[in-house]
Inverse folding.
């Protein structure tokens, strides 16, 4: 297959979309498929053998890490030269609209991925009045795609309830060799615990911005004075968090990657997710693969694979006391922590990237007509219908 990919974000930015894309490009190369990626300029010229077309992008004033390509760029020449069998757009908001429009114009099948809960993030940013209009915009955008992929059953059901159509689950995987308990390192534990490796070490990993709610953990360290906390990640909210956690036993590491990130996970005792708007939660699966008991909110894509009391503990998303109680429970009951860590590891071992991507390739194949796309008539952008689809019950 020849696949043209459009993404709103790519390297050097670090987030779940970029993480998934990198693994996807590596898999396409292994399976001998051809790909072309359109992304904001500033990243590499190619990745895993896939050429990258970098397009001029503008940084958002309140979030300089995020740079959007205006939806007016002309990509027709590059697409016509590449002659893709399929276009796949990731989180279409700006550049993704170009992929959708040109795909329809050229008669190329288009798949789309819904990977970020933008309406939920907007509420967390304190501008909830814009949440419903954002839902309407996203529903209209995804209505143009032949197939819409969701990272989890949780997300699929939310989208179906809001009238999105043509939905399919495309899950996520984890490299269970890269993230493994054997990567525990005493020097990393000493660093992350602020020089107190004998005390309980709680970590969280991710982007430091308001929607991630990392500030909730201040109440945790206040309530459990023996806990040492490591916040792994970076973002526009870091400076505020550093002020908020001043005087507490908290270590900020910035972004960690590769062997350093794997060692950080494996050297901790407990992983906590504070974000209640995750469509999947890659970092949760990485923590599970590393053998950590995980504590996660009751809303979000992570509920697909975190079963309360079996593969992790679940707390009420808006209740800080519930979060503190679950962490305290693990500290007080080390046998439970070990049991959850082992069960989480066993669960993560089954979530192989290779299987996840092979299922995606099979779904892509169903969209490609027997006649080359260049010979297909174009299809105009449609108006949203707003009809909620039916969807199958997730496997138990």
């Amino acid at each position: 297959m020849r696949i043209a990919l459009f993404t709103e974000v790519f390297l050097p930015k670090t987030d779940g979309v970029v993480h998934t894309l990198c693994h996807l490009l590596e898999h396409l190369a292994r399976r001998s498929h051809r790909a072309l990626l359109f992304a904001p300029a500033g990243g590499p010229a190619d990745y895993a053998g896939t050429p990258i077309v970098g397009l001029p992008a503008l940084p958002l004033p309140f979030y300089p890490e995020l740079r959007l390509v205006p939806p007016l760029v002309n990509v027709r020449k590059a697409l016509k030269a590449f002659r893709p069998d399929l276009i796949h757009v990731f989180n279409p908001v700006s550049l993704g609209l170009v992929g959708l429009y040109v795909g329809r114009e050229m008669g190329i099948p288009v798949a789309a991925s819904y990977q970020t809960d933008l309406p939920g993030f907007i509420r967390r940013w304190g501008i909830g009045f814009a949440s419903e209009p954002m839902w309407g915009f996203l529903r209209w955008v995804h209505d143009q795609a032949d197939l819409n992929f969701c990272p989890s059953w949780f997300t699929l059901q939310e989208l179906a309830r809001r009238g999105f159509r043509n939905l399919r689950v495309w899950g996520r995987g984890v490299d269970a060799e890269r993230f493994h308990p054997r990567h525990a390192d005493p020097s990393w534990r000493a660093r992350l615990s602020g020089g107190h490796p004998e005390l309980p070490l709680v970590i969280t990993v991710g982007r430091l911005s308001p929607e991630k709610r990392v500030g909730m953990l201040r109440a945790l360290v206040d309530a459990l004075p023996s806990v040492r906390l490591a916040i792994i990640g970076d973002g526009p909210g870091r400076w505020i968090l550093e002020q908020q956690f001043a005087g507490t036993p908290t270590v900020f590491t910035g972004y960690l990657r590769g062997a350093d990130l794997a060692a950080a996970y494996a050297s901790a005792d407990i992983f906590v997710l504070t974000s209640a708007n995750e469509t999947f939660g890659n970092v949760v699966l990485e923590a599970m693969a590393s053998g950590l008991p995980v504590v996660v909110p009751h809303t979000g894509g992570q509920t697909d694979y975190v079963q309360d009391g079996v593969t992790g503990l679940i707390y009420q998303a808006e209740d800080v006391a519930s979060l503190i109680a679950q962490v305290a429970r693990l500290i007080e009951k080390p046998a439970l922590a070990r049991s959850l860590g082992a069960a989480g590891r066993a669960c993560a071992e089954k979530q192989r990237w290779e299987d996840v991507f092979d299922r995606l390739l099979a779904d892509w194949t169903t969209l490609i007509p027997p006649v080359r796309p260049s010979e297909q008539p174009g299809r105009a952008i449609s108006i949203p219908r707003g009809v909620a689809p039916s969807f199958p019950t997730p496997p138990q």
